[in-house]
Amino acid sequence: DTLAQVAADLQRLYQVQAKKLLIDRHPGYGYRRYARDSGLPLTEIWHHHAHASALASEFPEVKEWIAFAWDGVGLGEDRTLWGGEAFTGAPGRWQRAASFRPFRLPGGDKAGREPWRAAAALLWESGQSAPFAPEPLQRAWSQGINSPASSSVGRLFDAAAALSGVCTHASFEGEGPMRLEAIADVAAGDAVALPLERDPAGIWRSDWAPLLPMLTDIARPQATRAANFHLSLAQALVEQARQLRAQTGIRSVGLSGGVFQNRLLAESAIDRLRAAGFAVHLPQRLPVNDAGLSFGQAIEFLHA
């Protein structure tokens, strides 16, 4: 009801009348009732395409992109929860080209507020035990009950925060990654090499598994483990970009999605990309997170 009232007020205030609605493809968002009841034509836009298009709109001189869209979660074209994607192309014709090894999140959306769930997911996926997780949850996870597959870098950050003992329960989504960034001692950090291989669908995937021994090593200071995690993801991003440049010849890289609000990760990735010969772009006028998403939806629609 509030959404309907705000939509009516804004149209009256700005003296415009909506003729079409652009919405995210995720079927579970609450505004779908309003969209359906409006009677207006609807166009659905993929979440991470909108992120990439919002970024691309700021740099019209770039015709071909390697665009990274790293965030919490958004519905992907294969109906799994994406969040660690790299695309090649441009608005209206994005092609998924790289991602991360997927893992199944026990409890689904609850993982955003309970980072220990993402930590358990990584341990279980790699054949290890998670003593801190309830046994019934592990049984449900092993049977695929309420455990959607995800490639989310945001959830990898949650897992890292929990495994390193920085944050197991969050009062808001993103608290774990923020705490992890805050304690990181970059001077003491070093990147862990993450294997990068193509899956049967031709998607380059970085494997997070080598991070687990480092994150759970209590002999290392938390600040060092936090730094290692950030630098490892930055290096994994560069390795993906190198492979995609070799495939396509594209040298322009864009960073989009809420994960790149993390200054340490963004600056580390930008420095390494530039050293590798890439032209790097970060949004200047639009928020890098979901606050820029609606603009990206409009750009994606205009190029469809």
In the sheet with the most strands, the strands line up as 8-9-5-4-3-10-11
Unreliable segments (pLDDT under 50, ≥5 consecutive)? none
Distance between the termini: 31 Å
Summed up, the helix count is 11
Average pLDDT works out at 97
Note the beta-strand portion. Answer: 15-25%
Biggest pleated-sheet summary: 7 strands, mixed
Helix content: 40-55%
Strand runs, count: 11
Query: What is the C-alpha radius of gyration, as a whole number of Å?
Result: 20 Å
Q: H/E element string?
A: HEHEHEEEEHHEHHEEHHEHEH
Shape by Cα distribution:
globular
- Based on helices, strands and strand pairing, what is the structural class? alpha/beta
Short characterization:
The chain is of the alpha/beta class. It has helices spanning 2-14, 32-38, 47-57, 115-125, 135-142, 153-163, 175-183, 211-215, 222-248, 263-275, 293-302; strands at residues 21-24, 42-45, 65-75, 81-89, 95-100, 103-104, 149-150, 196-198, 204-206, 252-256, 279-281.
